[in-house]
Amino acid sequence: MAFTTYATVIPGSMLTAAFWNQQVRDNGIDIRSGGLSLLNQTAGDILWAKDGTHWDRLPLADPALMPLGGNPVSSAYAIGKHTLWLPAGAWSPAIDAPCGFLTDIGTASYCPILGMAFDPNVRQYASTILAMPKQYNFNTTVTGRIYWTKAGSGVGSVSWYGYQEHYIDGENYQAAPNLQAWNQVDAAINTLYLHVTDPFELWLGSQAVFPRLTRIELMRYVDDSADTLTDLAYFLGMLIEYRTNLMTDL
To answer: How far apart are CA 250 and CA 248, in angstroms?
Structure first.
């Protein structure tokens, strides 16, 4: 059954492409082909009225986007970024070449601030494991930041290095892993000051394979000429930022 819509079109109003094959009229005048070809529209596209007789198309290839309206119409991420905080307490020193165990590096008059010490002279490691939501990286980049501090009076920078290993259900996690590495250098400011690195890209596996377990390994890259701090560097945690696709994150 065909539908006929009689309405006064308000510039900036919208309808979905699924309804485009219905006859859309403005005060009885067909405006379906009002100066713009819409033959290439796809499901989910938003059609909006530029004026009383012309339509335009807003492609929404990313389901995480939503139209905001206006004239011209615009779009934005409806979901926003999620953050996942992995404090030092969620990490374990490696079996071989471990970093220091969790210790309080705060002051006696406040709640403890816990960190793991990384030596300035030898490679030391820590690792953690996590499972991300099904659609955690939908059409976006997952990023990480290292939070750290120092307790000594030395000056210089710390080079943090890490990589991820990914395992799916039924996979031997002792087999050769799927690796992706990253490296981030951050300069020390002062003793017991909070230091936060710039964001770096984390590839935490494809959303097409779920469930998946990810192991993240962290190292102070003392072999790097950019690592010049002679003090212990205390790792406080890692912040992960990501988006999800709300419609399919089940």
So the answer is: 6
d(CA 88, CA 238): 8
Position 202: which residue type?
L
Domain containing 230: what range?
Answer: 82-242
Among 196, 199, 179, 206, which Cα is nearest to 240's?
Answer: 199
> How are beta strands 23-26 and 4-7 bridged, if at all?
parallel
250 located within any domain: no
- Is residue 247 one of the residues assigned to a domain? no
Written as six digits, the tokens of 91 are 């990490």
pLDDT in tens, the chain (250 residues): 333 343 444 454 555 444 443 434 333 344 444 434 444 555 556 666 666 556 666 665 555 566 565 566 566 555 667 889 999 999 999 999 999 999 998 766 677 889 999 999 999 999 999 888 777 765 567 899 999 999 888 899 999 999 888 888 887 777 655 567 889 999 988 888 999 999 998 877 666 667 778 889 999 999 999 999 999 999 999 999 987 765 555 5
Amino acid at 70: G
pTM of the model: 0.70
- Look at residues 77, 112, 133 and tell me which one is the last residue of a structural domain: 77
Q: Which of these, 68, 83, 66, 61, lies nearest to 246 by C-alpha position? A: 66
**Do the Cβ atoms of 163 and 225 come closer than 8 Å?**
no
Per the structure, the count of domains in the chain is 2
Q: What are phi and psi for residue 187, nearest 5 degrees?
A: -85, 140
DSSP state, 18?
G
Q: Is 248 domain-assigned?
A: no
